[in-house]
Amino acid sequence: MERTPVTSTNLKSIGYDPDSQILEVEFNAGSIYQYANVPPGEHEGLMNADSKGRYLNMNIKGRYSFARL
Questions:
Q1: Of residues 38, 25, 39, 28, the one with CA closest to residue 69
Q2: Cα(62)–Cα(29) distance, rounded to whole angstroms?
Q3: Is 3 helix (H, G, I), strand (E, B) or coil?
Q4: Helices (H), 1-69
Q5: Domain boundaries of the chain, sorted by first residue
Q6: Contacts of the segment 49-54: beta carbons below 8 A, 24+ positions apart
Q7: Cα–chain-centroid distance for residue 2?
Q8: Does the N-terminal or the C-terminal CB of the chain have fewer CB atoms within 10 Å?
Q9: What is the DSSP letter of 22?
């Protein structure tokens, strides 16, 4: 999946596939996680958030199933 580099203290890049609703997040530490069944609005909210790490923690983590790649 192609990811877009982002400005964040914790996140390096974010990718999203609207067809499968998979959100892929690469952390600055090097780990990559895929979150399943993430609606397009959540991806948009994450990309537009002033603090992407805070948005991820408050709106994505714990709400959507994930796999570490």
A1: 25
A2: 20
A3: coil
A4: 40-48, 52-55
A5: 4-68
A6: 51/8, 52/6, 52/8, 52/10, 52/11, 52/14, 53/8, 53/9, 53/10, 53/11
A7: 12
A8: C
A9: E
Q: Residue holding tokens 């609606």?
A: 39
Residue 40, helix vs strand vs coil = helix
The per-residue pLDDT for range 10-69, each reduced to its tens digit, is 999 999 999 999 999 999 999 999 999 999 999 999 999 999 999 999 999 999 999 999
Please tell me the predicted confidence (pLDDT) of residue 47. Answer: 98
**Residue 35: per-residue pLDDT:** 98
